[in-house]
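[agent] plan:
  1. take the single chain provided in the ticket
  2. run structure prediction with default settings
  3. attach structure tokens to the ticket
  4. add a short note for the reviewer (M.T.)
[agent] executing step 1
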Amino acid sequence: MHKRYLINNKASDTFFYLLVIISIFFFNNENIVYASNHNWIEASKTEVGIQYIDIDSIKNKDKGVKEISTKYLKFDTYDPSKIEENIYTMRINCLTHKFKDISVNGKKNLRTKWEGPNGDKLINDVISDSCKNV
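[agent] step 2 finished; step 3 output follows
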């Protein structure tokens, strides 16, 4: 009787651990890629990277404020075959010419503050292109 209890207990423990592993695999949302259509256009290019705007993502939020999706491809100056890609959701204040990144690669940025482009040609061109009709 005692042996049968140990075998059943071991089998239920194994089943439990297997269930936990499967649950982690299926419910881990961190690396999920949500498919959607993007209409990327090149906004600016420098020797260190290219900035794209998804023109279908531009939304008016508040007076003079727009929300857009951008993609930045950063080139590795030492190894041209290495390219880093980041997707941003930005809010742009067209009246003050400032921006804030509200998410980076799908992760929300809750502590972001409005800032100017500080001479960054890529960001300056994104702001200019996004605010053309304001």
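[agent] step 4 note for reviewer: Strands lie at 40-45, 49-60, 65-75, 83-93, 98-104, 107-108.
[agent] ticket updated
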